[in-house]
Input
Amino acid sequence: MNRMGPAPDFAGLKSEEREVTQNAVSFQDILLSLRQWRLLILAFVLFGAGAAVAMHFLSPVQYTASSTVVLLARPDRLVESDQGASPVDDAAIQSEIAIIKSAAVAGLVVDKQQLASDPDWNGAPRRSPFDLSVFQPKAPAAEQRPAPERREIAVRTLNWATAARRVETSYAIDVRVSAPTPAGAASLTNGLVEAYLEWHRNVDGDRARVAGDWLDTRLTDLRKEVEEKENLLEVYRADRGLISAEGSTVSEQQLASAQTAVSEARSKFAESTAKLKQIEDLRGSGGSVDTSAAALDSQVIQMLRVQEAELLRRIAQLKATYFDTHPDVQKAEAEYQDTRAAIDAELGRILVSIRSEVAVAENRLTSSNAALAQAQRQLGVNNEGVVRLRELERDAAASRKSYEEYRSQSRQTTDRESLPAVVARQVSPATKPVTSDRPPVILMVVFGAMCGLFFSFGLVFLRHLMDDKLHGASDATRKVGRRALVSIPYLRAGGMRSLAPAERHPAGYLVSKPMSAYAETYRVLRKSVIPGETARRNIVVAVTSALPDEGKTTAAWSLARAAALAGQRVIIVDCDLRRRSLSGYLRPKPEAGLSRVVADPQTLPSVIVLDTETSASIIPSVAEDLAVDDLLGSEKMAQLVESLRRSYDFVVLDCPPVLAVADAIAAAALADSTVVVARADKTPAKAIRSAVSQLESAGGFVVGLALNCVQPKVVGRYSFDDSLYLQHAKNRYYVG
Output
């Protein structure tokens, strides 16, 4: 139902930021939570310190001795490759640490130092006061256990007391053993290192012996295999005639010789043919044969040419002196003709010689080709045998190589068996520790206190994250999305003992202590519901809550009294028809209530009850009001409220809880503004958000929250978001 008449201007409030940041956590909120739970934090700190001290004195005294072992490079395979020994890597170091902490090495120490008979080691003593074995069935005494069981317990206990770790990134291993006495710790540490080295010597010796036996058997088999394959190779070579010389067979050598002979014959034939062709080409073209390469290479031709040249020179000289008929000239010309005839004869002889040479070269080439074909045919016949021969040769060579490798390894294994390889060396023997492993008492106290402190901080922080209740004004904006108009301080019963019995309630305290922080809070609330200048002074305010027992009736009555003390004409209407908490304070009990006034407004003067402490008027509620159907949501109720607005400056509607009764929504819709009362440290923010949503959905205007029962000491010096700085201001400005 809509409000009737002009309403105050709340535009300033409608722009209020309403974003809910429920998961946001501020440093101030954390400090407030820590302060609120400071006693719990102190208890955890004291408990942690006490537990640490108890653990310090209840735990047995232990001494720890230390020794350093350095690992050396060692071969990692029996048959080594060309790379030789492999360096020690991280995996190898971790393997050696596992060996040091193994039951086999611990067993050697237990046997040598007879720990199975030592009560400190054979009875599985509890090493911690928190050992859960105390709740298990009691085991038989150490002397009643069999020897193997005592030895097993001693081995497990020694393993529990042993620690081994790599020293940074080096090849060194730090070995530590804890024992009840300093001498025992040093003795066990050195004994453990010696047992570790002995274990390696035994393992290396056993491995070398096993490897030697295996290699001997393998060498015998390989020797027989090599002999068989080499014999098979020789028999096959002899049977197939594949005798080799200088790395190749006879057939291959014959083929190579035939190929060489063919090449030489072909070259000779080509050379002779070329000479003959040159001479025949010169003769066919009419050229001089004596200019051919064969004629130029002949010494006879060269000598005749010299003689010819000399005769030509003489003839020329003679003709220069004599006539052609002179006897000397004719004689010289006759000699010249004879020389030319000799040259021609020699050229003929050379031509015949070249033709004979060509024939011989041709015959030689023919015979060489025949020999090559024969060699090729022979080699083709032997090809299949050669392939098999190569296969046998490879098998024999592989067997021979394996045999040589194993024989070499056999010699190395024999040497290793006689002198086992050193894989580690103890570089610093353990000495007796001077102090025990117990940390100082003060350190344990600090450690326990810090553990308790951090644990309690974690609990408080987790509780703060999961907390959905309102503890201060800042929570209203962060968790609900509405500002807290006021933070109403909590009033203790002792503060009201001086009041008259009828006024021993918060509203009476407000009248009796007008200068108190409680009274000042409601003066602030009265101003907050009437912000700024309004068109008229008359205003209707609905006071409600999300859940019952939030203090909304006390807040409504106190607000009405604060307005009345300020000189305003005030009337408060008890709209909580079911509980009628406000009417319960009235004496004597009223006989007529709200329903009569709604039905007949003329009866208002007779129904109104005057507040004896202030000038405020009260319209009570009686049992018969509950029988009226939809009293608060009726049109007459709206007319009554509008009538009260015209008659009074300040009208307060004490409405029932929103989430408990539907009447609250109808009553709040009649008011100009609605104040939702929430109890600090109790009301869930989810309930308040739901109530605000329902009120606004019905047309009501929620001006803000009134946070009730706030503990000033809890809010503390960090409560700047509150309308009143309660913790400090009360010592200077407030009385009561």
